[in-house]
């Protein structure tokens, strides 16, 4: 809050003093210039004829996709089951790896703060920075296409997410319970089992269901790079320009995502 | 603890986490049946996996010797495009999601507006970025414009939802105080609501920039611009050293973004 003075000496209230105001303007200026530069780059790479054509093309594709080809559904049940398996087993597998990493990464449980903790944090960051589609791409190149590659991709991607949320939960536990267990002469493992695990159990369950929900969404598209699931059918339909099939698949995916979100919300509601 | 019994002959047992035994066993048996069914339908070609382990080892070794040089021009162009897409889509996404966020907050929007805005949010959140990108590439053609639009659309769903929830949680008395001065609707929003949600809005925008960059790395797979196309080519040609270089750069940028966003958010609060 500041006061500016007009030439004839009257004082006028202003929200900020001149200096702050100028800095804010400068920041806006830099931001706008940066955005203009970015926009110019995008615009230079764009064929604007296609852009002006877009409404016509969108209407054309829309016209081709209705009505959805309902009897194609009979071929979608198996990929849908695969998608569910990729998400569920992938989440389960990621938990097996994420729980020990979370214990290594949490400040109050890590056995070694100088080597193991940074290592665990590095694993968490790497796993989180790389999208599951990139993991899938990589695994398809390494172990071949199929549901298995998708399953591993989902589990590798989920490690970071689960471990990060879990180690934050571990760092927030009530220390007095741990002290009480330690005071009974419990071993390190017993302290963990009776002092820490019961406290983080609700968080763990919540994180699992939350991630499962995200994984359902992600596993629907893994097929695009050959990693199994319903995305494979979508890729096939797109390549053959079978728009009625594409629209049916999109509807199925939308429905699956909504159902998984509902299940996840219900379960989390029951836990918390 | 009700099950704790101290008589000498019996041992204390931990109470089970689900107290209803019928439900507990139903869940356990259901999970087992599901596991068996799931494993039965996954056919893994183990010989192929075994062969792949060799390539996997090569890929991991490539991380100790990443090749930044050979395809540096492609990597540089792709990275720049990813960053440009991430930044501009975040800006546009934030600008659009502010009115939608206002409209999706039940305490300031009338019911019809609320329903329209909520359905926009639901649609944006339900569709995976890649699916949106495929459709937009089909409509707008290849190139970063499709990627930019995809990320902006995804940003709207994320940001408007969280913004609306924050507005719904905001302190009513401040807004009422502004209203009592006889302010117009715009002044009411600007002085009564905006100061309360601003720190969170900035924090979320920076977080979304981080997410948009990560997502922009995959949009290239379907032709929507960015580093993904280069990465895909590198994998297809088994040029693991180049792929490792790209992945290392992505991780480094994400870590920088995360670190700086942490600093900015800490300063705001």
Describe what this molecule looks like in 3D.
The complex is a heterodimer of chains A (272) and B (269). Chain A has 272 residues and is mainly alpha-helical. Chain A folds into two domains: 2-46; 75-271, MetI-like fold (Orthogonal Bundle). In chain A, 75% of the residues lie in helices and 3% in strands. Chain A is built from ten helices and two strands. Chain A has a two-stranded antiparallel sheet. In chain A, strand 1 (2-5) and strand 2 form a beta hairpin. In chain A, helix 5 (132-143) packs across helix 6, helix 7 packs antiparallel against helix 8 and helix 9 (230-239) packs antiparallel against helix 10. The longest helix of chain A has 32 residues, at 188-219. Chain A is flat, with a radius of gyration of 27 Å. Chain A starts with a strand and ends with a helix. By secondary structure, chain B is mainly α. Chain B has a single domain, classed as MetI-like (MetI-like fold). Chain B is 77% helix and 0% strand. Chain B contains ten helices and no strands. Chain B has helices spanning 21-41, 46-62, 72-103, 111-126, 129-140, 144-169, 172-180, 185-219, 228-236, 240-268. In chain B, 39% of the residues are buried. Chains A and B meet through helix 1, helix 2, helix 3, helix 4 and helix 5 of A and helix 1, helix 2, helix 3, helix 5 and helix 6 of B.
Properties at a glance:
heterodimer, A: 272 residues, mainly alpha, MetI-like fold, 2 domains, 10 helices, B: 269 residues
């Amino acid at each position: 809050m500041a006061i500016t003075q007009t030439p004839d000496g009257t004082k006028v209230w202003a929200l900020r003093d001149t200096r702050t105001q100028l800095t804010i303007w400068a920041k806006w200026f830099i931001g706008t210039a940066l955005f203009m530069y970015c926009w110019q780059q995008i615009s230079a790479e764009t064929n604007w004829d296609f852009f002006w054509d877009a409404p016509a093309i969108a209407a054309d594709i829309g016209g081709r996709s209705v009505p959805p080809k309902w009897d194609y559904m009979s071929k979608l049940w198996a990929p849908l089951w695969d998608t569910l398996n990729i998400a569920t087993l992938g989440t389960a597998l990621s938990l097996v790896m994420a729980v020990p990493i979370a214990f290594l990464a949490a400040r109050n449980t890590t056995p070694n703060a100088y080597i193991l903790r940074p290592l665990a944090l590095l694993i968490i960051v790497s796993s989180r920075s790389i999208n599951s589609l990139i993991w899938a791409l990589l695994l398809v190149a390494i172990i071949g296409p199929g549901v298995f590659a998708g399953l591993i991709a989902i589990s590798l991607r989920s490690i970071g997410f689960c471990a990060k949320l879990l180690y934050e939960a571990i760092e927030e536990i009530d220390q007095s319970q741990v002290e009480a267990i330690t005071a009974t002469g419990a071993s390190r493992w017993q302290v963990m089992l009776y002092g820490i695990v019961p406290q983080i159990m609700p968080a763990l369950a919540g994180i699992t269901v939350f991630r499962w929900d995200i994984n359902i969404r992600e596993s629907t598209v893994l097929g695009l790079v050959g990693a199994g699931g319903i995305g494979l059918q979508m890729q096939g339909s797109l390549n053959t320009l079978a728009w009625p099939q594409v629209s049916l698949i999109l509807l199925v995916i939308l429905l699956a995502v909504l159902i998984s979100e509902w299940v996840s919300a219900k379960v989390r509601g029951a836990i918390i | 603890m009700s099950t704790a019994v101290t008589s000498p002959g019996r041992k204390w047992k931990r109470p089970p986490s689900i107290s209803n035994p019928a439900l507990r066993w139903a869940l356990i048996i259901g999970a087992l049946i599901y596991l068996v069914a799931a494993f039965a339908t996954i056919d893994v070609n183990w010989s192929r996996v075994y062969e792949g382990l060799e390539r996997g080892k090569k890929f991991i070794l490539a991380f100790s010797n990443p090749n930044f040089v050979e395809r540096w021009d492609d990597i540089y162009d792709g990275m720049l495009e990813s960053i440009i897409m991430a930044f501009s889509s975040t800006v546009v996404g934030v600008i659009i999601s502010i009115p939608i966020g206002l409209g999706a907050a039940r305490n300031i929007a009338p019911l019809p507006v609320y329903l329209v805005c909520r359905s926009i949010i639901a649609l944006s959140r339900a569709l995976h970025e890649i699916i949106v990108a495929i459709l937009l590439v089909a409509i707008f053609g290849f190139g970063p414009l499709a990627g930019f639009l995809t990320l902006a659309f995804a940003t709207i769903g994320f940001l408007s939802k969280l913004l609306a929830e924050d507005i719904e949680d905001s302190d009513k008395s401040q807004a009422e105080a502004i209203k009592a001065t006889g302010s117009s609707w715009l002044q009411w929003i600007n002085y009564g609501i905006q100061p309360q949600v601003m720190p969170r809005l900035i924090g979320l925008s920076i977080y979304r920039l981080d997410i948009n960059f990560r997502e922009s790395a995959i949009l290239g797979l379907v032709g929507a611009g960015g580093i993904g196309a280069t990465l895909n080519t590198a994998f297809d040609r088994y040029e693991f050293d180049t792929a490792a270089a790209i992945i290392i750069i992505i991780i480094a940028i994400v870590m920088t973004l995360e670190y700086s966003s942490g600093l900015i958010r800490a300063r705001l609060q």
